[in-house]
Amino acid sequence: MPDRPPVFDDREDAVLTEVVGALVESERALAELEGVRIVQFAAAMRVALRRSEHRPRAIQEREMALRSIAAEIGVALRWNDRTVQRRLGEALQLVDDFPTTVQALSDGRISARHAAVIRDVGTELVDPTLRAAFEARVVTRAASDTAAGTRAFARALLEELHPASITERFESAEQQRRVWMEDGVDGMARLGVIDGAAKIRAMYDRLTQQARAIRVVARAEAEVGDIHPDAVQDRRTTDQTRADLLCDLVLTGQPAVDPTAGTLPGGLGAIRANVSVIVPALTAAGATDRGASIDGLSPIDADTARRLLAGAPAWDQLVTHPVTGSVLAVDRYRPSPALQRFVRARDVHCRFPGCRQPARRCDLDHNHDHARGGPTARCNLACLCKRHHTLKTETPWVARQLPDGSIQWTSPLGRRATDRPERYVAFVPEPDPPPF
Ligand SMILES: [Zn+2]
């Protein structure tokens, strides 16, 4: 940390304050306009539905009224008519099923992207009362969070409210698992796979870790000038390396090139996926099936969660309190300092407002600088990704941790934003006291 924060010109600060203010204002105005547009789209969709009521039964023919109206609007707006058709349907769904969201958008409290998240996730709730309860909570969250943060919150809340438990839904959803291929252009093609979130996240994490290990070796060799013949041209991005590794693994069962063999015990093959399995205590004990997730992001079914809890020692395993959602126990095969595990478990991801970098890829930052007497204690430590750790160290951004674990950020221009720790559960506690 530099001794003194860099000094900025006051006149520049005045310009920036004005710019940020104007941007906030235009964001609000855009949201209001989007509200207007959605109401108009919904009105057009209603006309289309009314006109197709009397049409014969063939779907093709019933859709003609809608197609014609979508084309009419598309030509007027210079939009693709298929896009218009999709937007008409989405707009009517918002107006009919998510009135609180449309109101918040029209008031400029949330953006169109937040509204899309609420519709996208909330559409799974068929019961109007449940959906209204869901909507009210998520709109409040959306007013103070990014679209991505709102999506994670909405999905956790959906798990709590959905009448069928995720175990039941997973059972039928898992039947849809498959691998497919599509031809692309320029000699390329695409391979897709759908399977349980635990497996897919673990696969992606392992590929990412392997790709990073390869890059570390390539960089180190370039620095000392000791260039291995295989690594000479290794200027691949992480994305490209992940793709190469996946192809190697499927086609030959192992990476074709392993530059880490000399430096990493066991080479690339020894790298195991590392994701956090978060399981509420009642689910761990088998009393209920709700609330388990991977990294606090992907809800998973209770059977998978319990199986991982019992038999996947390389993964972080967190058991959370059934009511408060705070962490009760952390267990891990490879030992690391308990405090570090606690902070990563509490934070789930980087604590800069809106950042979702997983905690295990973050640095542990002393909110109050250690060199200036800040204690190494949970009340002074937080996960920050590389980008936001550097931002805090190198610029006048200030972070202060409050007693409840919230972090209050103050920008160079004096704007305040508070990041609250994840609670893992998004629901209101049930009145019965838990057996703890
Ligand atoms: Zn970050």
Written account of the structure:
There is one protein chain. With 436 residues, the protein is an alpha+beta fold. The protein folds into 3 domains: 24-163, no CATH class; 196-270, no CATH class; 276-419, no CATH class. It has 15 helices and 12 strands. The protein has helices spanning 10-52, 59-62, 64-77, 81-97, 99-106, 112-122, 128-142, 147-161, 166-173, 197-224, 238-252, 281-284, 302-311, 338-347, 386-394, and strands spanning 178-183, 189-194, 276-280, 293-294, 298-299, 316-320, 327-331, 363-366, 381-384, 398-401, 407-410, 416-419. The chain has a 5-stranded mixed beta sheet, with helices on both faces. A 3-stranded antiparallel beta sheet has the order 10-11-12, with no helix packed on it. Helix 1 (10-52) packs antiparallel against helix 3. The longest helix has 43 residues, at 10-52.
Shape: globular
The structural class is: alpha+beta
Helix content: 40-55%
Adjacency order of strands in the biggest sheet: 5-4-3-6-7
Order of helices and strands: HHHHHHHHHEEHHEHEEHEEHEEHEEE
Number of domains: 3
* Ligand list: zinc ion
Structure summary, number of beta strands: 12
What's the helix count? 15
Strand content: 5-15%
- Poorly predicted parts: 330-336, 425-436
Provide the residue-averaged pLDDT. Answer: 80
Q: How many whole angstroms does the radius of gyration measure?
A: 25 Å
Q: How many angstroms does the end-to-end distance come to? A: 44 Å
Summarize the biggest pleated sheet: 5 strands, mixed
